[in-house]
């Protein structure tokens, strides 16, 4: 397989022309660490346990799956995995909003995490659309987050 045929983040990794994918890997890892710290600070009550586990699962999945996408063996595999990354990022927005709207966490304390989750969702949705050849019409807005249509 030629370098030009590989998915974007893998191509950048091989060529070392751009460190965007490396910076994005670091960014998604930092996002995961922030979510882990948030979950560890949640109150000790059943609602916080349930929502905390959900935000941990979806939020840490963003970085883990992006790492996997960067090592995809084909464009089809990259597209499939990056679509999962976009969906997990959007799901994380939902759970963060639930934490704020229920008062489990004061909404003002979630602003930076929500901003980052929205930015990551936009990045990965755009990446999915570009890689799969879809236009912006393939993305619909749901509340405050972008959701990739299947």
Category from helices, strands and their pairing: mainly alpha
Find the count of extended strands (DSSP E, 2+ residues): 2
Rounded mean pLDDT score: 86
Considering DSSP H and I runs of 4 or more, what fraction of the residues is helical? 55-70%
Largest sheet properties: 2 strands, antiparallel
Element order, helices and strands?
A: HHHHHEE
CATH topology: de novo design (two linked rop proteins)
Overall shape: elongated
Distance between the termini: 28 Å
- What is the C-alpha radius of gyration, as a whole number of Å? 16 Å
* Beta-strand content estimate: 5-15%
Individual helix count: 5
Largest sheet strand order:
1-2
| Low-confidence segments | 137-150
CATH class: Mainly Alpha
- The CATH superfamily turns out to be 23S rRNA-intervening sequence
What's the architecture, going by CATH?
A: Up-down Bundle
Number of domains: 1
SSE topology sketch:
Elements: H1 8-15, H2 20-40, H3 46-69, H4 75-101, H5 111-132, E1 139-142, E2 145-148
Helix pairs in contact: 2-3, 2-5, 3-4, 4-5
Description:
By secondary structure, the protein is mainly α. The protein has one domain: 23S rRNA-intervening sequence (de novo design (two linked rop proteins)). Helix content is 68%, strand content 5%. The chain has helices at residues 8-15, 20-40, 46-69, 75-101, 111-132, and strands at residues 139-142, 145-148. Strand 1 and strand 2 (145-148) form a beta hairpin. Helix 2 (20-40) runs antiparallel to helix 3 (46-69) and helix 4 runs antiparallel to helix 5 (111-132). The radius of gyration is 16 Å and the shape is elongated. It starts with 7 loop residues before the first helix and ends with a strand.
């Amino acid at each position: 397989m030629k370098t030009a045929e590989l998915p974007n983040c893998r191509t950048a990794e091989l060529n070392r022309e751009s460190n965007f994918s490396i910076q994005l890997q670091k960014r998604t890892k930092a996002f995961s660490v922030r979510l882990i710290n948030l979950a560890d600070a949640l109150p000790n009550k059943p609602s916080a346990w349930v929502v905390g586990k959900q935000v941990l699962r979806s939020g840490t999945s963003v970085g883990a799956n992006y790492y996997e996408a960067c090592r995809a063996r084909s464009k089809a595999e990259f597209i499939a995995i990056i679509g999962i990354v976009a969906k997990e990022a959007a799901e994380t927005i939902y759970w963060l909003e639930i934490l704020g709207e229920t008062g489990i966490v004061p909404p003002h304390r979630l602003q930076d995490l929500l901003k980052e989750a929205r930015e990551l969702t936009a990045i990965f949705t755009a990446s999915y659309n570009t890689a799969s050849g879809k236009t912006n019409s393939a993305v619909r807005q749901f509340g405050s987050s972008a959701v990739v249509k299947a």
